[in-house]
Amino acid sequence: MLERDVLDRSPGVHWEDIAGLAEAKRLLEEAVVLPLLMPDYFTGIRRPWKGVLMFGPPGTGKTMLAKAVATECGTTFFNVSSSTLASKYRGESERMVRCLFDMARANAPSTIFIDEIDSLCTSRGQAGEHESSRRVKSEILVQIDGCTTSDASGSGGPPQVMVLAATNFPWDLDEALRRRLEKRIYIPLPDRAQRQELVGINCRGVEVAADVDLDGLGRDTEGYSGDDLTNICRDAAMMGMRRKIAGKRPAEIKQMRQEEVAVPITMADFTQAIARISPSVSQDDIVKHEQWLAEFGSS
After folding, report:
1. CA distance 175 to 177
2. pLDDT-derived band of residue 5, with 50, 70 and 90 as boundaries?
3. Which residues are 4's β-sheet partners?
4. Longest CA pairwise span in the chain (Å)
5. pLDDT at 286
6. Which of 52, 61, 142, 232 gives a 20 to 30 Å CA spacing to 280?
């Protein structure tokens, strides 16, 4: 079941598919990619980090970065969510965690990516915490320590299983887990240049009219996340089709050729899409992430 749900042998995402985030890419390359390429160098005090935590507002590209890491490393990619490891039977969730890490070792070198890790590993000892939840947290902590101390041969070389985690609520994480995820990287909202690049990446497969001003779009989308910009581009790309089929009956729409519907995206389409779609990240949320970065982040 785990192999069906979480195993992805070829994520197919490369660094160039992700706009901007140069500092995050550099840190991930240093923490994950280089130890696999230069195992003799990353020993002793230069040993790789036990794990990497990516935190930031939702929709900023944390999952895409994890997939790009797995692609660039050529590792087996395990994409895990809390629902994958949840079970109503006593002891089953802990067994699933052990099985996941055993699979990762068997398919080494591999990358385990735990998305929304805050839903699995909130601080222990909180009021109302269930015993089974505490056992799962303890098992995850033990397995991270066990799989990242050395390679499978026991020779003390760089670990062959890298643990990546992502969260939108880093302040909810258990302290012991925060210690094990030694590299904590902030993934911020895209800046103006990155927003321009994101629009270009999202519109690669469609025709764009000559009047589209990427610089203006970058300026007008201040505060939007990467996912928000993707939604804007999708909505703008649908505008021409909506105009073409307006007032037509289903039978008439079915007879239309693709060339009739696939018109270029204009600047007016983008402007209309921006007016319809609001930013999904609040300023208060950004402030909380920056405060946590100042207290616990690393660069």
Report:
1. 5
2. low
3. none
4. 71
5. 92
6. 52
